Amino acid sequence: MAVAWHPDVNQKAYGMDTAPMENVERVEFESGKARTFLKNTAAKKTHSFMLKMEDVGDNSEYKKFVTWWENTLLSGALSFYFPDLITHDGYTEYRPIGTYSATGQKWKEVSITVEEM
Asked: How many other β-carbons are positioned within 10 Å of the β-carbon of residue 52?
């Protein structure tokens, strides 16, 4: 079940890296011959991107993001809707790969890696 992105956290992704996910299944037979098959008709992609968030005060954008990540997204266990990172048209469902990382003090640069659903 996908959850909505927190309405008070910006969706201005930048510094994006995109790579196709493995979409081939390999089967090797006892004879030594191997065959490959497509897993899905369309290859899914992984995306890594960053978001810049202000972290000043008890109700900062970054703190809202952390609360959303831990309580709504269940620390990355669920998927979420986010603006399509390729077409920038509409929303797409993404699932986090691992957890986020953040650097900085007043301004946090949050890095997230996701896969298309």
From this structure: 16
